[in-house]
């Protein structure tokens, strides 16, 4: 926790959660060349509470945005663990945002903005990523949002 | 609109839509090395009409194919904006095709063929991509199909 | 079928299915640089039987794990066809696991472990991948699990 981005996080009042350990035969991150792949991260708050439910049913768009932001913070925790400091992020290349949602729900973009806005708040231009926002039936543990990522690593 | 592929498009009678601007803190395309990532594009027709609904409910497979083709045209509009000309496409590497569908629906491949066939019609071998076809609960704005892409850029 | 991994497969009693041919204008695999993209593979058993249904409805978690393992075997059949031998796999980089599931289903990770465990059983450290596990409405042909992959190819 020693880089410029970490100092920026502190000035924003943002604390990263502990990076979640995978509970099976996979890894939370893997680097190939200058790209870092991050496994799907769940909408778990920093106190460990799961943000669960379905958009269009028992969750509001604001709930969904908070869930997406929580998933994005879990992504950043993995990136920091992988790279040592968030300063080594050259670019957030890709976010795939999966939203547990009903068939009638239509505001997936607003939900995933909870993650996208965080990335730009933290990394500015380096945080502006491509993305997809998709409404799905259900997610692990009943969580509301799952997001995975591809990050380009700065040359050192 | 000046390349060989653009001339081929004209001979096929295909007009690309205007590239959609993102409405949030993300970008429609991003290049990293020789790969271009395209954000999820919706099934919006060239006149701006959204092709909405669910396969297995109020849309036929033919409707879905038209939706997939419309999403693919929006991908190509982004690729053209990113690269200047579609001649700079070395290979369509990947399409992820998400189809708003009921639990009983089974014809996702036929739906996504609306996009795949277009790519091969336009780019021939360079258009033959890997893909996944997935049935989801709902998509942004209620659209029927969303497709994202990874494109390899030709060395220049 | 001549490499060390193929011999390891034989010692494990694992037989790969025949690599499925795509039925449309796409390809089952595509290499770009040292990465091999594999199209979404379905939960089809080696005898050609489709493992179909929905988790949380008519399939148990054990059924889902068998489906995920079957999809993963189909991925490996494509990798072997693409590279000649599984010995050319440097790393399984990414698995996206899509599970046909009801809204109330929560055990997607356990289901996709059927694929993840197989990769590590076969490739040990080189098989430890990033992944996402997602519950979707429906999948092609009604199959229970679809998995796609990105594989890093060993330099030769």
Question: Can you walk me through this structure?
Answer:
The structure is a homotrimer of 156-residue chains. Chain A has 156 residues and is of the alpha+beta class. Helices cover 31% and strands 26% of the residues of chain A. Chain A is built from three helices and five strands; from the N terminus they run αββαβαββ. Chain A has a five-stranded mixed sheet. In chain A, helix 3 links the parallel strand 3 (89-100) and strand 4. In chain A, helix 2 runs parallel beside helix 3. Chain A is globular and about 45 Å long. The two termini of chain A are 18 Å apart. The mean pLDDT of chain A is 96. Chains in contact: A-B, A-C, B-C. At the A-B interface, strand 3, helix 3 and strand 4 of A face strand 1, strand 2 and strand 3 of B.
Percent range of helical residues of chain A:
25-40%
How would the global form of chain A be characterised?
A: globular
Gyration radius of chain A (Cα, Å) is: 15 Å
Q: Compute the number of strand runs of chain A.
A: 5
* Gap from first CA to last CA of chain A: 18 Å
């Amino acid at each position: 926790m020693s880089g410029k981005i970490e100092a920026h996080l502190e000035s924003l009042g943002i604390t990263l959660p502990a990076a979640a350990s995978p509970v099976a035969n996979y890894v939370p991150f893997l680097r190939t060349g200058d790209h870092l792949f991050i496994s799907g991260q769940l909408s778990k708050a920093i106190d460990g509470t799961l943000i669960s439910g379905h958009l269009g049913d028992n969750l509001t768009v604001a709930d969904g945005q908070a869930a997406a932001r929580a998933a994005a913070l879990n992504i950043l925790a993995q990136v920091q663990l992988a790279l040592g400091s968030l300063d080594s992020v050259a670019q957030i290349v890709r976010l795939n945002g999966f939203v547990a949602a009903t068939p009638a729900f239509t505001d997936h973009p607003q939900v995933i903005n909870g993650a996208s806005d965080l990335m730009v708040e933290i990394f500015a231009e380096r945080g502006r990523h491509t993305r997809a926002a998709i409404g799905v039936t259900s997610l692990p543990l009943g969580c509301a949002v799952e997001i995975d990522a591809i990050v380009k690593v700065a040359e050192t």
